[in-house]
């Protein structure tokens, strides 16, 4: 198994091009199941999660290939299969987003439960509730769930749990409702840019969705969706990770192909800590320095501070002198990185859904284990500023969500290599 080896202490300088958004690409690719004809999708990152959804779509009769210009060309060729392969579904929780399209287009979806996850409980009850509102019959078995419906009917629903809205739940219902008869209203819909992006893609395929970017989505069902050509937004979490990398290493990075608007809360938080950030239309320039202040942050659904940057921010606050606190409101157990940062010399204590950070410690290189995608990123950031050599094991998690991270960091001057 590959490891990443980082020799810390180099300030990152230069420009980096941010890749397409993983969490927009996955549901958009799944939504192709709903359509007839060919769709051409640009800016889809080369990631292992994307490879998994492509394999699932192949198994479900969708022909997909990467053109020379990197665009993915997708055409539904065979609509007979309603059961995505269990071994692939269990590799990635986002595979649940084929459920809505299969149910709406093929009247049936039999899908394995994606199983537990290191970032905490990730139930799919809201997805199922949404499908039931649309008229689906849902049968839950030990290892899988089976949904059937002769035809789906628009409905008004509230989609939410104690943790707020659901991103993929909203996506699943929106996709199914696009081909339902009549009008669906989703209240408390997720407002994440990736959900808005899916709605834009569906509308380009002929769907009638309004309320984009708000928490009330209205979907007027249509009889058919057609193929389209689309360019996916850039990955705000990858961008946020590079902003933190520049800040932590006291370097200067220009991020290209970004949407500063999608990072408003992250940028405000980092400016409050003391990082210099200048925003342009589709570029961000970040300059680190030596005088940062501790802070208190609470993760929230968009437009709040994203849970997907919580671990990376903790890594930064570990080196910022003073007491900081981060409270995780979306996944209260998403702290698997804490022990690994502590091994590197950080002083972080987890109590319930919060971590208390006594910052300003000098991090030292160590052998640490990545437990999930964003935890891996937090360890890479720590390695970039640690004294000596850090070896990160189980680095395959990183490849789920960061395209060419090692190469991009090397170009910015980091001493980072696969071993
Ligand atoms: N929830 C329920 N029931 C449900 C669905 C969700 O109780 O049926 C709860 C979850 O347990 C969680 C909260 O609601 O506490 C929010 O979960 P959500 O459904 O929004 O998460 P998701 O759609 O499964 C997406 C991203 C995650 C990101 C979350 C939150 C994709 C592929 N995944 O997951 O991204 O953390 O939204 O923003 O879009 C990542 O990229 O590293 C990642 C984990």
From TrEMBL:
Keyword Nucleotide-binding: no
GO BP: any one term: UDP-N-acetylgalactosamine biosynthetic process
Location of the active site: 117
Pfam family, one: EPSP_synthase
Keyword Cell wall biogenesis/degradation assigned: yes
UniProt keyword annotations, A-Z: Cell cycle, Cell division, Cell shape, Cell wall biogenesis/degradation, Cytoplasm, Peptidoglycan synthesis, Pyruvate, Transferase
Domain of life of the organism encoding this protein: Bacteria
GO CC, any one term: cytoplasm
Binding site for UDP-N-acetyl-alpha-D-glucosamine: 93, 122-126, 308, 330
Biological pathway: Cell wall biogenesis; peptidoglycan biosynthesis
Chief site of localization: cytoplasm
Domain Enolpyruvate transferase, first and last residues per copy: 7-409
Full protein name: UDP-N-acetylglucosamine 1-carboxyvinyltransferase
Organism encoding this protein: Uabimicrobium amorphum
Gene name, Swiss-Prot/TrEMBL: murA
């Amino acid at each position: 198994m590959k490891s990443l080896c980082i020799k810390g202490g180099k300030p990152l300088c230069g420009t980096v091009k941010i890749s397409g958004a993983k969490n927009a690409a996955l549901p958009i690719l799944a939504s192709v199941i709903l359509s007839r004809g060919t769709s051409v999708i640009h800016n889809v990152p080369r990631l292992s999660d994307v490879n998994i959804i492509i394999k699932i779509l192949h198994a479900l009769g969708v022909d997909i290939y990467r053109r020379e210009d990197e665009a993915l060309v997708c055409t539904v060729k065979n609509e007979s299969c309603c059961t995505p392969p269990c071994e692939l579904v269990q590799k990635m929780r986002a595979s649940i987003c084929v459920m809505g399209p299969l149910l709406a287009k093929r009247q049936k979806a039999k899908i394995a439960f994606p199983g537990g996850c290191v970032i905490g409980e990730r139930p799919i009850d809201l997805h199922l509730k949404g499908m039931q509102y649309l008229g689906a019959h849902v049968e839950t078995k030990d290892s899988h769930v089976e949904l059937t419906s002769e035809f789906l009917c628009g409905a008004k629903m509230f989609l939410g749990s104690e943790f707020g809205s659901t991103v993929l739940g909203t996506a699943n219902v929106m996709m199914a409702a696009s081909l339902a008869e009549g009008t669906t209203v989703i209240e408390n819909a997720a407002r994440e840019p990736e959900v808005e992006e899916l709605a834009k893609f569906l509308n380009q395929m002929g769907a009638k969705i309004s309320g984009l970017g708000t928490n009330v989505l209205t979907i007027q069902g249509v009889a058919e969706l057609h193929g389209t050509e689309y360019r996916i937004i850039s990955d705000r979490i990858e961008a946020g990770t590079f902003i933190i990398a520049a800040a932590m290493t006291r370097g200067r990075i220009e991020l290209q192909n970004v949407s500063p608007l999608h990072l408003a809360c992250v940028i405000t938080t980092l400016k409050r800590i003391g990082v210099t950030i200048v925003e342009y239309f589709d570029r961000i320039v970040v300059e680190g320095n030596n005088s940062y202040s501790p802070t208190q942050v609470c993760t929230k659904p968009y437009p709040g501070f994203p849970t997907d940057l919580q671990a990376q921010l903790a890594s930064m606050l570990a080196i910022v002198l003073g007491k900081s606190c981060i409270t995780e409101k979306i996944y209260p157990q998403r702290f698997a990185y804490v022990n690994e940062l502590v091994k590197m010399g950080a002083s972080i204590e987890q109590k319930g859904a919060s971590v208390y950070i006594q910052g300003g410690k000098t991090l030292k290189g160590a052998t640490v284990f990545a437990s999930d995608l964003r935890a891996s990123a937090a360890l890479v950031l720590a390695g970039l500023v640690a004294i000596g050599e850090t070896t990160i094991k189980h680095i395959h998690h990183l490849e789920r969500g960061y395209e060419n991270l090692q190469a991009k960091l090397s170009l910015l001057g980091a001493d980072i290599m696969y071993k």
